[in-house]
Amino acid sequence: MVSNAFANHSKHGSFDTTLENVRKRNLRERTVKILFATDGSGNARAAAGFLREFMREREIELVLLTVSSPPDLSIHGNVQNPDWEASQRNFIIDLHDELEDQFSGLGSEHLSKLHKTGSAAAEILKVATSIQPDLIVLGAVGHSMVHRMLLGSVSDNVATHAKCSVLIVRPQGESESPSMAAPKRIAIAYDGSAASSEAVNEMMAAQWHPDVVVDVVTVVPIYDVWMGEGISVSAIKNEEEVFERMRKRGDEVSATVAKEIPNSHSHILRGQHVGEAIVDFCDSNDTDLVFVGDTGHGQLHDWLIGSTTKYVLRHAPCSVWVSRHDASKN
User: Fold this and answer.
1) Are residues 190 and 53 in the same domain?
2) How many Cα neighbours within 13 Å face the side chain of 123?
3) Which domain holds residue 281?
4) Residues 6 or more apart in contact with residue 167 via CB below 8 angstroms
5) CA neighbours closer than 13 Å in the CB half-sphere of residue 283
6) Segment 266-306, tens digit of pLDDT
């Protein structure tokens, strides 16, 4: 992530061109389409609570999706529970009705409900391709009679392959009935790239609690990481200059955020592993939600998520918002 920012510095002398992207568009002025994938588990319900807070004062088009796993078969190929289909249908009707009541009156003028059967990640991605949401929301861990949503399988698969932004809600604590209110502390991984600037835009488009704390976090790799990436010796000698430039850009972004969210701070860190430094920061500062920008899909269908983004997604102790903003939707 930060190596891209260093490349911008090397070519252009500063990060001004990417910084101009921050707040270039007012994302609050348009309706946001959200695909909420839920299995009815405790963590999925916590994700619904998080989403409910996010929806305040926004125009939302909300699609509720639940994916049922096909029932297990016996060695003779017979369905173990002949009433499976009816029980699933009743469970999902009750679940979706409950969520519709929960989201009513929160700016959602249009709400639709979908039920699919099959592989959860595959079905979520199929629906996302069809309806083209701005954001997919799901819980990081969960299990129920409908499907297991495990990080490293469903959540990780969706976050890796979706073409839009993805919010993976990870409730704090070990409660059997986790809850998730509005985040009190948000971190944004900023490296001067256009993707990280879009992450700042997407964060600022939401309506957060007035007392929320926002940390703009920039990580500068230390020497051995730079050497491993093939950075020249002359660049290493210039490390302090690069550090100061990145610190300045982080301060400028923090100041931009502070115009609407007063309690905003800039943090410049050094580390051998950018993703690990971000995760450690979130762990040490009781972060509730971290934003990471990702460049999104290119022309090749088999695009791979960036290593820093994937590391944060898999190891952060908090909820993770992978920001992939499509400028064509403005």
Assistant:
1) no
2) 20
3) 1-26+182-330
4) 47, 50, 51, 135, 136, 137, 138, 319, 320, 321, 322
5) 10
6) 999 988 888 999 999 999 999 999 999 986 544 333 334 46
